[in-house]
Amino acid sequence: MNKQRGLLIVLSGPSGVGKGTVRKELFTQPNTNYEYSISMTTRAPREGEVDGIDYFFKTKEEFEGLIHAGGLLEHAEFVGNYYGTPLAYVNETLDAGRDVFLEIEVQGAAQIRAKAPDALFIFLAPPSLTALQNRLEGRGTEPADVIAKRVATASQELEMMSLYDYVVENDEVQHACDKINAIIKAEHCRRERVEKRYLSMLKGE
Ligand SMILES: Nc1nc2c(ncn2[C@@H]2O[C@H](COP(=O)(O)OP(=O)(O)O)[C@@H](O)[C@H]2O)c(=O)[nH]1
Ligand SMILES: Nc1ncnc2c1ncn2[C@@H]1O[C@H](COP(=O)(O)OP(=O)(O)O)[C@@H](O)[C@H]1O
């Protein structure tokens, strides 16, 4: 029998909710069987960010070239910059039977839902809008006007929550990680059960 294709896991949510923090924590834990897909962006690197680890940093022209060449699974413009997921890496990894973990904003997640409805969609939600604003201010990576734009965008992003398979509140990082791992495990069990049922139906059992 062919190796089962990996599961595409999409973690999304508003800027500042803690997606990056939760994702990094998930990847420090043993027994994570998923691979992180490093995104492309035209945003300038923040202090300490490394090309090829945090993002593949691209010029606007390079990014637009990738869009036209069909090199991205999804892409979106977020507060003045492009962000996108490399298509070849995702397909190759899934075809090799390994799960792929994307950490992206909501417009990109909606594009993936249209193209790959069998992906697993998890929305990371803040305990409150005030907590979200505090986290963005506390991170200190953006000036006040950019924070204001990100908070304004967050209200629209939160409205997309109901389109996701699961909503996980990021109250405490470890708690959010435990919930995400439990969801992924449960999804694998569900898929195995569906496949078994389908195979036995094909065999006429
Ligand atoms: N659509 C899409 N969004 C992405 C991608 N990579 C990152 N993002 C999202 O773009 C938004 C801005 O990212 P960034 O500037 O790094 O800020 P931060 O995530 O708040 O630290 C965040 O919501 C990211 O999750 C991607 O490949 N595609
Ligand atoms: N559960 C949490 N409780 C308190 N602060 C958090 C939590 N998760 C993340 N943070 C903090 O919030 C800020 C934004 O987190 P980050 O991971 O950069 O968000 P995102 O990637 O969604 O934009 C960071 O300063 C981070 O340390």
TrEMBL record:
Its EC number is 2.7.4.8. Keywords: ATP-binding, Cytoplasm, Kinase, Nucleotide-binding, Transferase. It catalyses: GMP + ATP = GDP + ADP. PANTHER family: GUANYLATE KINASE, GUANYLATE KINASE-RELATED. It is found in: Cytoplasm. This is Guanylate kinase. SMART domains: GuKc (SM00072). NCBIfam families: guanyl_kin. GO terms for molecular function: ATP binding; GMP kinase activity. It holds the Pfam family Guanylate_kin. InterPro entries: GK/Ca_channel_bsu (IPR008145), Guanylate_kin-like_dom (IPR008144), Guanylate_kinase (IPR017665), Guanylate_kinase_CS (IPR020590), P-loop_NTPase (IPR027417). Essential for recycling GMP and indirectly, cGMP.
